[in-house]
Each structure stands twice: as C-alpha cells, then as structure tokens.
Write a structure and sequence with these properties.
alpha+beta, Non-ribosomal Peptide Synthetase Peptidyl Carrier Protein, Chain A, 6-stranded mixed β-barrel, 3-stranded antiparallel beta sheet, RTL1-rel, Ty3_capsid, Peptidase_aspartic_dom_sf, Ty3 transposon capsid-like protein domain-containing protein
Length: 502
C-alpha cells in the first residue's frame, strides 16, 4: 500500500513539472505572437503612410494641371471672343481618285496601278491592311473584279488566306502580271536604240527599267549610254556624267535638230538694217521663180522656194548643226613629239572637209555666176587601195590631207605588226593632246605590183583602220593618175600600176 502511494506521488510530481514546462512554452509562444503582430502592424502602418504620401503628391499634381487647364480655357475663351470671327478653316485638298484596273496583262499598267493606290493610301492616311484591301478591290473592273470574287469565295471556304497587303499584291501579280515580263523587258532594254527623238528614247528607256526588278544602276547607265546615237553619246560623255540621273539630264538638255528644223523660219524673210528693200535683180529672179513654180503646178510660196532644205549635219548626217558635230575632231590630227605642236606638224584628213561640202545655188542668183552644182562630181569622195601589209591583206585609205601613215591598234594586231612605244602625242581639233600608242618602223607593204617599206603610227581611229598619208605619197613619188582610175608609180627601174577604188 505504501509503495502504491509513493508511485502516485512521484507521478503527480512529474505531471506538475510537465505542466510548468507547458506554461513556460505557452508564455514564449504568446510573446512571439505578440512580436509578429507588432511587426505586421508597423509594416502596415508604414505602407499606409507611403500610400498617403503618394496619393497626396498625385492629388497636388492633378490640382496644378487643373489650374493650368483652367488658365488655357480662359485664354481660349478670350481669343475666341476677341478674334474668333477672323479665324478661317484651311482649304480642303481634293485627292484625285486612282484609275481602275480592268485586268489587262501588262506589267507596266499593273505596276502603275499598284503605285497609284499606294500614293492614294498615303494621301488619305489609311494604314490598316484590311481597309486597304477593301479599297483596292473597289477599283477593280471587268476581269479583275471577277478574279477577286472567286478569291473571296476561296477565302470563305478556307482554301486560301489573304489578310495583309503584301499577300494581296503577291496574289494579284501572280494572277495578272506576265511571268516573263522582267525577261522580255530586259531583252527589249538591251536592244533599245535611239532611233527617234531623245525624249521618246528616254521615255522608252525609263518604262523598261521600271519593269525590270533589281537592275543595278551601273548596268542601267551602260545601257542608256550605249543606246544613244553616236553624236548624242559623245555629247553626254563629254560632260563627264557619272550617274544615270546625270546622263538623262544631260541627254534631255541636248537640242535634237530634227525637232527644230521642221519649224518654219518666218523671221528669215524680214529685212535687216531698218527694213532694207530688195534690189531689182532679186525681185526679178524671185518673180521668175514664182512663174516657174506655177508652170510646174507647184503651190509653194516664193519665200519657201528661195531657201535650201535643211538636212542636218553635212559631215556625219546627224540631227545637229555642223558646227556642233562631234565628228569635227576627226577632220584633223596633229602629231607632236613633245610640248606644243608647231605649224610644221602633221595633219590628217583636213582635205576631207572640202570633199564633204556641197554647194546648192539659190534661185535668185544671176545666170552669169558659175553654179557649183553643175560641175562634174567624182564617183567617190575617198580613195581606197588593196594592200598587203606585213604579208596580210588589208584595205587602206589614201588621204592627201594626212601627213603620216596611221593604223589602229586592232588592225595592227590583226596584221601581226609589232610596234614600239615612242614619246609622241596626237592632237585633234578642239581637244587636248593625247599620247600615241607607238610607231612601227619599216613595215613591208605591197600595192599591186609595187612593194616597199613604210612607217606606221598606231593611234585611235573610229572610221578607218589604215590611212596612207603624205609620208607614203613622198615614198612612191613620182606617180600619176591614169584614165582607168589607177595610180601609176614610175621609177628608173620601171613602172607599176596600183588599182584604186572609190
């Protein structure tokens, strides 16, 4: 019994100790909870204070903005009351409507239609793709509108999707633009030549260039210069143009003589020096001309019959005045060994100018004056001979106005002629001196039955490959022209005949 009571007492003591520990733990937990609650409260109060400060700042900013708006409103009211009657609305700009596209399969027309629609969208400030597609379809007609109706059915059925402007343009070009349009335009651009007026040539060239995508500007520049006529090409190159825009501007500034020569020159018939009266002889011959025209049934006026018809440049036949002919520089060439050329230097082709001139007498000239047109005209203006140069056949021009023998570099290579570079220059009329390519000494040559050696100067020439000048004529002297048109070279050893063609 005593043992049982002792055990119970021990258990009671143990329970009291555990209860004491629980009280201590509860007290600690209570303290921790109170600390957490205090921290949370402090944090919440700090955030509330911060929010109050931010709200106060925003409220002050709104008050300031409200005050500024009130001031501006007051100023606007005063301005409206003071000068409102003088305020006028700006003029309304009328935007032209783009033309409709009816389904013609032409690359130039398709590109123009799409370009005009883009400009129209920019003018009306339309930016959404869906709205742009709807507006474009309103400017379709005939075959084009039928195509779009089919595409709308395909879009509704889900077989295709056109949501952006680029997708519409791609599908539109795929349907109507020829697949080989760029290739055909490129072929036309390569074959384009300046056969009519300069304005027409520039228009055709610009149209073809726009139809070819991604064509480099350098290639465009080469095609444009290469398609011009020789006289226009030389004038454009003379201005040292570097870009296509500069070349087109230079070509447009050229005066096409074919446009101006068709216009009447009414001012030419007016008197000069205060209205001088015509002489008796001119009026008499004018009357005779009128009577002669009436006898032939001609309805032309005397003033038009007195003037010779203008046929352009008499040197190259181009549509420009002879004084502006780029080929004038080919009429004379001067060889200089160094420094400026003297009066004893060589000249080439100067007499060809006199051969090219043809005089046409006027109707009012007296019959006592010798008319140049009645003089007998030779069969040809130029003399050519068949030669063997360095053992190879070639055709040479015999020019009394050239003091040296000239040959082009291409012809020299063809004939197998070797030359050496020498310090010399060639100067053409109205140009700066340029160096010669070289001189070939003692080149064997045969003309008919005659043979010998000559010196050849290698230069740049456009019209002829081989020219025999006074240097050759001095070599074969004495010679004479025979009745059959050949040249007879005479020596103590004998004579040789050289056939000549004109």
């Amino acid at each position: 019994m005593t043992d049982s009571v002792g055990k119970v007492e021990n258990e009671v003591i143990t329970l009291k100790g555990q209860l004491g520990e629980l009280d201590n733990r509860l007290e600690e937990v209570s303290l921790d909870a109170q600390s957490l609650a205090d921290q949370a409260f402090e944090k919440m109060m700090g955030e509330m204070a911060k929010m109050r400060e931010e709200f106060t700042g925003e409220l002050l900013a709104l008050k300031k903005e409200n005050e500024l708006l009130k001031e501006e409103l007051t100023l606007l009211r005063r301005a409206t009351v003071a000068g409102g009657a003088t305020i006028q609305a700006g003029p309304k700009v009328e935007i032209p409507k783009p033309p409709k596209y009816h389904g013609k399969r032409d690359a130039w027309e398709i590109d123009n239609f799409l370009w005009s629609m883009e400009r129209y969208f920019e003018a009306v400030h339309l930016e959404e793709d869906a709205s742009k597609i709807n507006v474009v379809t309103m400017y379709l007609g005939d075959d084009a509108i039928l195509w779009w109706r089919r595409r709308e059915q395909d879009i509704k059925s889900g077989s295709c999707s056109i949501r952006t402007r680029d997708q519409f343009k791609e599908d539109f070009k795929k349907q109507f633009r020829p697949h080989d349009a760029a290739k055909v335009s490129m072929m036309k651009l390569r074959e384009l030549k300046h056969s009519s007026t300069i304005k027409e040539y520039i228009k055709q060239f610009t149209t073809l260039v726009l139809e070819v995508d991604d064509l480099p500007e350098a290639t465009q520049f080469i095609y444009f210069i290469g398609g011009l006529q020789r006289w226009a090409q030389q004038e454009v190159e003379r201005r040292n143009v570097q870009t296509l825009a500069e070349a087109i501007a230079a070509a447009e500034s050229l005066v096409d003589y074919r446009d101006t020569r068709k216009e009447g020159h009414s001012n030419d018939s007016k008197g000069k020096g205060g209205g001088a009266k015509p002489t008796d002889r001119s009026s008499t011959s004018s009357n005779k001309t009128v009577k002669k025209d009436k006898a032939k049934g001609s309805s032309s006026s005397p003033s038009s019959s007195d003037k010779p018809s203008n046929r352009g440049c008499y040197l190259c036949g181009g549509p420009h005045w002879a004084r502006d002919c780029p080929g004038r520089q080919k009429l004379s060439a001067i060889i200089a060994s160094g420094g400026e050329s003297s009066g004893d230097d060589a000249q080439m082709g100067s007499l060809r100018l006199f051969i090219s001139v043809r005089a046409t007498p006027k109707a009012e000239e007296s019959t006592k004056v010798v008319k140049v047109s009645t003089l007998p005209c030779p069969k040809g203006s130029l003399m050519f001979v068949d030669t063997l140069v360095n053992g190879r056949a070639s055709k040479a021009l015999v020019d009394c106005g050239a003091s040296h023998n000239f040959i082009t570099e291409k012809e020299a290579m063809k004939l197998g002629i070797k030359y050496t570079k020498e310090p010399g220059r060639i100067k053409t009329v109205n140009t700066s001196p340029v160096p010669i390519l070289g001189v070939a000494h003692k080149v064997p040559i045969c003309l008919g039955q005659w043979s010998g050696t000559i010196n050849l100067t290698i230069v740049h020439m456009d019209d002829f490959s081989l020219v025999l000048g006074l240097e050759f004529i001095d070599t074969v002297r004495p010679f004479s022209f025979e009745a059959d048109g050949s040249i007879m070279i005479k020596r103590d050893q004998g004579s040789w005949s050289v056939p000549v063609t004109r």
